[in-house]
């Protein structure tokens, strides 16, 4: 990947000091960019919604009892997460209430610094193996930086210097503990920020210490936690800015490709990380944590500035337009923990066949304690995005990096001030107009990003077509007030085929991905009138496959109040589809797994409407295709059990994955944990009457690491009318490890079969595979 022009050490906004590698772009200070249009609306909703008022309802954000302003008290990541986004929300909107509260928190936290540089809760000094927990301070350093850039508060530089000096005195082992070990990229960014302002060389020594203590992203993926990945994968490239070693830059690109190749095989920009990315859980019904969405956006924003590679900018837009708005309700009062490409019901029930965490993750809640990290952290998404729309270039120009209606005021050229107004409905329109405002003629380079999907972008200056090539289209001229640049990014409706997810397809138009429009019914399940907790249920069919090769028609609507709502979207698509009756929800109302495509369907052809993914709280976004020569789908077995561990999967025994051993933890499993020594059962509804003569069980047994063992005994029962009867065995019930244990019996005809087990005294048990033939 070649570094694009204009990488250098000049520029009006804190150039990169040697020996740090020159970069093409510099971030403008908060307040330099005024969001307008739909982006200003989303930010206004945020001010009046969950982020802007979360301190009214979160007990982690009570000033008087918070350890970040009273070090004798306790606190951790919640206040740092929230303040990082909350402060920047104030800087980009100018909301006086937000700004006043931000300053109060800044004053309070800055006053806690001890003589040795430590700040915040004293108990965090020794909370990790008698050493400091640096992780929760990392988001606060970002908050301090934004506050300094906005306010010029002279306390921030010495405060950060003193704190980072304290870090630099710590022994190497401190840097490889807990969450911080996977997230040092955040702290490295702060050290570079300070170094570029002070030039103190020891800060670069600290960067090397942080890199050496970091989880090893250079050799591969050190941890599959989704937020660790979203933040941590960029760390090697950040260190490359100091090391100059291409292996560090390349590691970031390689790790991103690895994660997305394994778990990002569906649209929306994210990857399957419903806490951790796990083998066997990559279907588009899997979700991406909201923390992961905003952290991955931030990583892409940083990598754009560091490398100039427009692929990162494209990825940030895909997340922002498609996944981020779907993570909260239309009023931004409540949010959920997990956002999925395919999701047809958002209720408050645990999903044992889908998600890893032992709590419900999809209903819309303010989630102070249940969702905890995400509602405190999500707020940086739009404010950070707004601040990255425009970038200063190191050849004293301006770059339009991401597109949204806005006005930027910046120093360019030889030190002149210029404003540029961006008028557009992008991403709902393919035209963008820029109008220059300047006191006198001024020469400077103006760069416009060409998205990866827009090969045929066109530019006009004052009505005259100009021909510019490259990912960053450069216009260098003497600009006069009123000069107008028109950028057209022709948006065509295209499909992506996700070969690794059953050849499903997604539908794109420019940066927007489209989902099936499903009628949504909101039901209040808790909360208050002001802060309602909501479930969302489908009120129209959703199990459609798109007719292969059918055209897509664009339908313009009258623009509504909010383009990220079903009623407010200004542009929809229509196409032809057939229902696939065999595609159902499972026993816990989770959209069924995709089956091999294209699918066969004899259902009538219907015209369906597609809306932007970000406007669809219920959605199918990875579609099967249907074709005359398609594959017949089957009704999937419905599985119930006497009990299932919250972190396990009801559907694991029927997943089709063959274990390597009884202790195989690389595939989904079903267990009755933490029930021990009891009689338990698991039942298959085969969906039709079949003749059966054998059942094979591959028992889960984690001897040496856990408390699950093969059962003491087991038997097979079949449902005869309304009576469960034991089968007449012709072979014994084996309980051996590391193989299928098959019992045969006199054939029976039934739709329902049950395996009943007696667990060993003091032990639990489970299954990796259960076959019924």
UniProtKB/TrEMBL annotation:
InterPro entries in the record: 6-hairpin_glycosidase_sf, Beta-AFase-like_GH127_cat, Beta-AFase-like_GH127_middle, FA58C, Galactose-bd-like_sf
Full protein name: Transcriptional initiation protein Tat
Domain F5/8 type C: 621-773
Chain intervals for the UniProt region annotation (Disordered): 645-665
PANTHER family: PROLINE-TRNA LIGASE (DUF1680) (PTHR31151:SF0)
GO annotation, biological process: carbohydrate metabolic process
Coiled-coil stretches: none
